[in-house]
Amino acid sequence: MMEENQQVKILIVDDRPENILSLVAILRPLKYELITANSGEEALKHVLNHEFALILLDVQMPGLNGFQVAEIIKSRESSSHIPIIFVTAISQALEHVNQGYSVGAVDYIFKPFMPDILKAKVEALIKIYHYQKRLENQRELLAEQKQALEEANNKLRETTSQLRKSEALTRMIGDTSLDAIVTTDKEGYIISVNPATEKLFGYQSEVIVGENILKLVPSLQTREPSASVIEVEALRKDNGYFSAEVQIGQAEVDDMNFFVCTIRDITQRKVMEQQLREQNNNLERIVDEQTSELILVNQNLIHSEERFRKIFESSPNLMAIQSISTGQYITVNESFLATTGYDLEEIVGKTLECLQLELPNQKKLIHEKEDLHKGFRNVRIRFSSKKGELREGLLSTEIVKIQGEKCVISVITDITERVNFEKKLARMDRLNLIGEMAAGIAHKIRNPMTTVSGFLQISKSQMKYMKKEYLDLMIEELNRANTIITEFLTLAKNKSTDKKAKTLNSVINAIFPLLETEALLSNKIIHLDLNDCPEVLLDEKEIRQLILNIALNGLEAMEPGGCLTIATYLDSEGVVLAIEDEGKGIDTNILDKIGTPFFTTKDTGTGLGLAVCYSIASRHNAEIKISSSTRGTTFYISFNQVQSVSEYRELKESFQ
User: Helix (H, G, I), strand (E, B), or coil: what is residue 340?
Assistant: First the structure.
């Protein structure tokens, strides 16, 4: 009883603490678990979290009153069975009592009440609660036993069905099996045989039943059950032997042991096995021969791949392998990386677009989707390096399959240096031709011009015959023509020079005031960045003219506020003079024509300024390079082939 009381919970609901204390004091001796609530809302929360055997509920409460709380509790299926006793001192009217019973109360107690009566009612309801619990447990136990009985009956029916199926299946297997199935007792005497036994051995079943199994299988040495198959010689009724396989199993029925022997004729299989062995021997011989051939072919292939790898890696040409399906690079050689400036990780997985391959004559890019399927043979192309440098090359391609994937091997022969050399030769040829022309005609043109100029100067004093402004114009034009002829004569290849050991910095500092004045007149800036450089052999007059021509061109190319930078420095090739402007740059279509005599982009230019610069550089064994973009143009004059000052001085002293 104590254990039951400890499990029973009673909910006491009243908004007045003193009433709750009174009820708790009365019921505590009964040793029930008492849970209290000060409002209808709190009571509903307890009902959700606990299972109560009884609820003592006050009627008059703020918020939800007792009737409303009872109605909610009874509306929930899980709490509708809980008995409720209304305890009140106010709502004693008959309609209130009726309302209490209508919402599900089992009793209605008025205050003040007798404690013994309250205890008796509570204990009676608790006993009813215990009876209900026992009934519920018994119902659950009966349900479990009923379910267990049903499950046992189902298993019994299932086992009986399986047994019948098994018997029918065994009988069907025995009747339809192509193997002989013989059942014997523990002494080996035959109890039953299947139809296949009659066909295999030639005996009727009634004749062979009762005989010992050794009559059928004389060589059978054991009748012990075994999962392994025994190969024996079996004997037919006509005394003919045949090869057979025997497998023995054991069964026990009603404490009696039975043995089941399965006998299979393997004569045909023996013949087929012999044929198969012969075929296997032939196949092994053929495989050995083909394997030897494949090994030889594989060795040749390995040697070929090794030769290709060495050629691919050591070739001075740019070699690459691309996938035709995706157009992406699979691998490239070292020459490819060295020439383009890319790392291997930057190229692998990329397409032709990174090199901007272009057919110069057609002015269009080569696209992998359109052009990889085409075969190229020494096609002239132009491609771009990582730094944006344009280079010339000859492209050849070959389509191959590599590990089942269709690929293209491309070879680019870099002819940039050769093209540049050819351009230099062409420019030098033009300069030489013009120089020869200049040497031949300059003096012949100058003489009559001198006479005309002198005559016009004499006529200038006789103003009555000719207006002065006409004479000034003629003299000015003749002087301009004389200047052009002087520059033209500067192109002469046999022009003598007066070279002396000087530094470029001293020449630049000497003409800097003139350049700075010219720059200030057009609101521009000249910045000098002169580093320590060794002396070189210079004709100071010609170098001044070279610097002035290039610097003035740079000033003209810039907008007001632009900065022209003149720098000198020493690199691995020698002393370098760099003149950089901030103009719009030179169009790539005319970049190759820069330095050609009489080629100009100015409205009033003669086209001889840069040609003179190239002629001066040639006489000083210097090389002019141009780098141009939309941010400006830089002229690099590299004195990389000049004779050293020390050698010059030694040579000069040897002649003195």
Answer: helix
Residue 646 reports pLDDT greater than 90: no
| Cβ pair 92, 110 in contact under 8 A | yes
- Residues 522-538 have pLDDT tens digits of 899 999 999 998 988 88
User: What is the pLDDT, as a whole number, of residue 527?
Assistant: 92
The two three-digit tokens of residue 93, written as one number: 């009217």
Question: Strands 358-359 and 364-365: what pairing?
Answer: antiparallel
Q: Which H or E element spans position 54?
A: strand 54-58
Residue 414 in contact with residue 391, Cβ under 8 Å? yes
pLDDT at residue 320, rounded to an integer? 87
Q: Is it the case that residue 568 has pLDDT exceeding 90?
A: yes
Which residues contact residue 493 at a Cβ distance below 8 angstroms, ignoring those fewer than 6 apart?
Answer: 431, 432, 435, 436, 615
Q: Could you tell me the two tokens for 307? A: 């030769």
Q: Residue 188: what are its φ and ψ, rounded to 5°?
A: 100, 5
Spatial CB neighbours of 474, under 8 Å, sequence gap ≥ 6: 456
Helix/strand/coil for 209: coil
| More reliable by pLDDT, 566 or 325 | 566
In 459-609 the beta strands, taken as DSSP E runs, fall at 500-502, 525-530, 536-538, 563-571, 574-580
254 phi-psi bin (left φ>0, alpha ψ -120 to 50, beta other) = left
Q: What are the tokens at 147? A: 């379910």
Integer angstrom CA distances of residue 54 from 75, 109, 125, 409, 432: 16, 14, 7, 94, 126
Q: How many residues does the chain have?
A: 656
Mean pLDDT score across all residues of the chain? 79
Q: What is the pLDDT of residues 360-383, one digit of tens each?
A: 655 555 555 556 566 777 788 888
Q: What is the CA radius of gyration of the chain?
A: 59
Position 651 pLDDT exceeds 70: no
Could you tell me if 55 and 85 are in contact, meaning their C-beta atoms sit under 8 angstroms apart? yes
Cβ-contact 427, 596 below 8 angstroms: yes
